[in-house]
User: Which sequence fits this backbone?
């Protein structure tokens, strides 16, 4: 009912920045009822972890490891969520997944790779 497509990943050096985008599409009924959108990441050999989320009304949560460096934002008209990542560190290397929920169902994108070299 909801498809999520991420973009903006890549290879950068430590200290540089990247901006991820995630656009939601699909059934208008479900897309218009998306509540929370956010980002998770999974590094090799590790569990998927929360990076940042934002509710439809602007409430945000951040992982402690990214506070002060990453900023989540959202365009409810375009059904798009962004993740501005500044001062990237090698430990930020992971596949970043977009996530959203709508009427009790959870949706995931396919992920975008972020690699930070030291």
Assistant:
């Amino acid at each position: 009912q909801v498809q999520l497509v991420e973009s903006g990943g890549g290879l950068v050096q430590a200290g540089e920045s990247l901006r991820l985008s995630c656009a939601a599409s699909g059934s208008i009924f479900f897309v218009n009822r998306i509540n929370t959108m956010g980002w998770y990441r999974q590094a090799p050999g590790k569990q998927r972890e929360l990076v940042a989320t934002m509710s439809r009304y602007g409430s945000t949560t951040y992982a402690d490891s990214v506070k002060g460096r990453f900023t989540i934002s959202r365009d409810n008209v375009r059904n798009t969520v962004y993740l501005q990542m500044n001062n990237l560190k090698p430990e930020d290397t992971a596949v970043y997944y977009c996530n959203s929920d709508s009427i009790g169902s959870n949706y995931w994108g396919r992920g975008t790779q972020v690699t930070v070299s030291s």
Notes: The chain is about 5% helix and 60% strand. The longest strand covers residues 18-26. Residues 69 and 88 are 8 Å apart (CA to CA). Helices lie at 28-31.
